[in-house]
Amino acid sequence: MNSEHASTGERDGRGAELDELLIDAEADDEQVQQQPVVLHRPWLLLLGLVLVALNLRPALSSLAPVLGQVSEGLGLSASQAGLLTTLPVLCLGLFAPLAPLLARRFGSERVVLGILLCLAAGIFLRSSLGSFGVFAGSVVAGASIGVIGVLLPGIVKRDFARHAGTLTGVYTMALCLGAALAAGATVPLSRYFDDRWSMGLGFWLLPAVVAALFWLPQARQGHAAHSVAYRVRGLWRDPLAWQVTLYMGLQSSLAYIVFGWLPSVLIGRGLSPTEAGLVLSGSVIVQLFSSLTAPWLATRGKDQRLAIALAMLLTLAGLFGCLYGPLSGLWGWAVVLGLGQGGAFALALTLIVLRSRDSHVAANLSSMAQGVGYTLASLGPFAVGVVHDLTGGWNAVGWIFAVLGVSALLFGLRAGRALHVNAVSERV
User: Fold this and answer.
1) Helix (H) or strand (E) holding 426
2) Are 143 and 95 in contact (CB under 8 A)?
3) What domains sit in the chain, N to C, each tagged with a CATH number?
4) DSSP 424
5) Whole-prediction pTM
6) Which of 41-45, 144-148, 283-287 has the lowest mean pLDDT?
């Protein structure tokens, strides 16, 4: 075993390692800040964080229940519909590296406010300008979510360092709740507005505007930027870093296939659009429980391999049950799928921290895992559209589930070992 990849299995207090790594090296940073961070109204910041997190999935999960109506109304083929579900996920990865650059220039709080307004603009474009607007708005919305998604964990680490683990769980639960609300409410909203899918999709710009209003005090207050920069060496050459990244990307690919295509699959099996949207919504709601409990349980053992294996096996069982199982047991399979995917995503975030020696390495590993991982994840929804276009049905999609799921399991088992990535951070 490489000396830099020394096992952490003998360390005491593994359950607290997540919080410890998040606050490690923060003291050095605080010494070079121009002003200390003082939270005059922490409850307002917490409320703002929750409201922002609630808006990071509706633009992704609201499209799937009305995808058939959108495709019919705009004359899209299945491959074009697959591209439409792929674009936002691709932008999550492509635009994630912009987040730290923007934050250093303008400050995290101001960037979050500006990007929230961009997100609202993207949702408006997608619902109002026909074919061009649907694709252009999807790009803007995906890019916005990619930037904010990188910044929020950093704000949590900075302002709630002693409770970072708990706040990360709350943040993840807010993501799942936003996805569930959008998946379940978009079709009823469309029907309320005379079966206009554009109104059902456009509704979700309102929560983004509300979140921006609540975030405005944070943008006005702002925080001084660090005057010392850190460079992390060796990360992109490290096999363990790539194992974490590939696990993140492959399990995310399955998640965005579910967001983008599960309602269409279920409609093809005989469900109404409303019923299909409710099944997706219910599955995502179940993720609230496993996303909070899986990291806590995983840090109680010697490593995370058992937890990862359980999460991925539940995910595969749920996917195959929804695709091939009797419709009478559909809700049971949806629950199994939600438990698996909630745990898999939360464990991917947990691995980023547990595999890093300090917060600077964790930040760079997070950027790598999200940038590369989400770019890889975007291929899954596109492949589903292509396969459906070629076969005219959904049965062959099971092969995509199998390849992605087994690959995620294999890389996850490697990433779940109690090791650290071979990377070091240094001041520049």
Assistant:
1) strand 424-427
2) yes
3) 3-427 (1.20.1250.20)
4) E
5) 0.77
6) 41-45
Q: Which residues pair with 424 in a beta bridge?
A: 233
**Interval 286-342: pLDDT, tens:** 988 888 888 778 777 788 999 999 999 999 999 999 999 999 999 999 999 999 999
- What is the CA angle 99-104-108, rounded to 5? 60
Q: Band of the pLDDT at 163, cuts 50, 70, 90?
A: low
Distance (Å, whole) CA 86 – CA 67: 13
Q: Which two tokens stand for residue 342?
A: 């909630």
- Which of 123, 127, 128 has the alpha carbon at shortest distance from 139? 123
Asked if the model's pLDDT at residue 164 lies above 90, the reply is no
Q: Which tokens in the block code for residue 223? A: 């925080």
Torsion of CA 56, 44, 22, 16, to 10 degrees: -100
- Per-chain mean pLDDT for the chain: 82
More confident call, 222 vs 15: 222
**231: β partners:** 426
- What mean pLDDT do residues 206-225 have? 82
pLDDT class for 208, splitting at 50, 70, 90? very high
- Do residues 151 and 112 make contact, with C-beta atoms less than 8 angstroms apart? yes
As a whole number, mean pLDDT of residues 12-36 equals: 42
Residue listed under structure tokens 């083929």: 77
Give the pairing of strands 424-427 and 230-233: antiparallel
Pick from 21, 36, 7, 72: nearest CA to 273 = 72
* Residue 246 reports pLDDT greater than 60: yes
Round to whole Å and give the CA distance between 226 and 336: 44
User: Which string of DSSP letters, residue by residue, matches 16-27?
Assistant: GHHHHHHHTTHH
Query: For residue 24, what are its two tokens?
Result: 């490690």
Query: Which tokens belong to 323?
Result: 């695709």
Rounded CA gap, 28 and 353, in Å? 19
Alpha helix segments (H runs only) across 129-238:
130-159, 164-192, 197-202, 205-221
For the chain, the helix, strand and coil percentages under 3-state DSSP, each to the nearest 5: 80, 0, 20
State the Cα angle at 103 between 99 and 109, rounded to 5°: 110
DSSP code per residue over 223-264: -PPPSS-EEEESGGG-HHHHHHHHHHHHHHHHHHHHHHHHHH
d(CA 193, CA 173): 30
Alpha-carbon gap, residue 241 to 234, rounded angstroms: 10
